[in-house]
């Protein structure tokens, strides 16, 4: 069967499409709405110490009771994972705070090209499964998603350009677009990336949503986490077609 980390390296391209944005500062969902509290019990908030007095934030999701899947660029000196949170600034009885004891970035992760930007985090103990904390197992197989399919992204990233991140978990619906819509981005590779969004609507993921989940709207059967590395369209013009290197290849 192989270990969990071994399986991660052999997942087909669209299976893992994360919202991987710059980790330089916290960010959020543009043009989205607040999630119903605890409607996404698999979501994990990551507080990452990357240097002395320097803390950044990412998203992730619980795939096993002691493993969180996130973006490789969300690595740091230490990581604290909060499960069962909705408003990350208001502690609830549902919260479970766990420490990461081992970080497993993809062996081919390229920080310059943002390829294979995916990472497993092993927690110091198993999470207690509750109504507010649950796992999202990876689907056993994946079929390509056609253009036009509406997907949903969630995270605690920024909701407006120039503002700080959202305290509450946000979500936004985005549409998979034909790859031609992203051809004008010089770094776009349809063999490694998906084109997502709508240039006519101001909706997007943004800084701080790194490592969070992007999924097909057929929960739970076809809920499909996939891998990406969000490019400059997100950072410069929310609502533009979103590109991201889906760098996990079989």
From TrEMBL:
Keywords: Disulfide bond, Hydrolase, Protease, Serine protease, Signal, Zymogen. Residues 1-26 form the signal peptide. It comes from the Eukaryota. One of its GO terms (biological process) is proteolysis. The keyword Hydrolase applies. CDD domains: Tryp_SPc. The keyword Transport does not apply. One of its GO terms (cellular component) is extracellular space. SUPFAM superfamilies: Trypsin-like serine proteases (SSF50494). Gene3D superfamilies: Trypsin-like serine proteases. SMART domains: Tryp_SPc. Transmembrane segments: none annotated. Residues 29-250 form the Peptidase S1 domain. Residues 228-250 are annotated as: Disordered. One of its GO terms (molecular function) is serine-type endopeptidase activity. PANTHER family: CHYMASE, KALLIKREIN-RELATED. This is Chymase-like isoform X1.
